[in-house]
Amino acid sequence: MTTKRVKKAVIPAAGLGTRFLPATKAMPKEMLPIVDKPTIQYIIEEAVESGIEDILIVTGKGKRAIEDHFDSVPELEQTLIEKGKSEFLKLVEETTNINIHFIRQSKPMGLGHAVLQAKAFVGEEPFVVMLGDDIVQAEIPCTKQLIEQYNKTESSIIGVQPVSRDVTHRYGIVDPHASLEGGLHKVESFVEKPAPGTEPSNLAILGRYLFTPQIFSFLETQVPGAGGEIQLTDAITRLNQKESVYAYEFEGKRYDVGEKLGFIKTTLEFALMREELAPSVMEILEELVAKGMVKNDQH
Q: Are strands 37-38 and 245-249 parallel, antiparallel or unpaired?
C-alpha cells in the first residue's frame, strides 16, 4: 500500500486569548506581532516550507483580522507599485499566495472540538495540526520532521520535547512504552497536565501533531474532559488503543508565545536575529541593564 502524502494542515485559532487582555479584546492573539510579523504567519510559513499545500484555519468570533491578513489588498499593492516600494510589495504578496481556507468553531468547546471542525476538509487523508502558541525554529521545519517520521511508520506522530520536571503540570505528557532509534518513541499513554510529581516522563507535547484520519471517529465520540471541553489528548489516548501513536522528539528551538513572558522573550530573540535591528536592540538592552544596576546601588 502506498503511503498517502501529507498535504493538509489544520491551525486552531479560535481561542479567546485571555492571557493577553486587554490587547486581545478586539485583536486576535494570533495577530500579535513578533517584531513585524503576526505570530500565525510564522506557523503558516512553517507549513508551506514543509510541503503543505492546503491550510485550514479554525477561527471564532472576532477573528476576522486573520482572514483579512491573508487576503489581497489591491489598493495597498497598487500604492506600493506606484511608489516603487518593491521590497514591501513582496512582503505583502507573501501573505496572499497561499491556499488558505477558514471555518468557524461556533462554541469554545476545546482543542479536540476545534480539530473536529476539519473533518470535511481533511477527508480520508493524513494531516497535521499546528498550534499557534508554539513557534519552532529548526534547520528542517518541525512539521517536515513529523512528515518524515510518518512516511516511515504510516502512523500518527506527536511532536514532543523534554521539559523541566517542575513545569510538566502545564503540558500533555507522554508515557513512553519503548524508545526507538532517532528520537521516536512508542507510547503507552498520554496524560493531560499531570499533578506535580505524578508525571510519567518529562516528554511534553508541544504544539505539533500528525494524525491519520481515524482520529475523527474518536473526536466525534469523545466525552468532555478537563474544563468541560473536548480534549484532544483524550482522543489521542483512545486512538492509541486501536492503532499505534508515536511520539517524536523533534529538533529545533521551540518558543512559547502563548504567555506574556515567553512572548516578550521571543520578540527580543527574533529582533536580535535581524541584522538591521540587532545592534540597536542590544544597545537598548545594555542601557536598561545599566540603569537597573544604578537603581539597585541607590537602595
A: unpaired
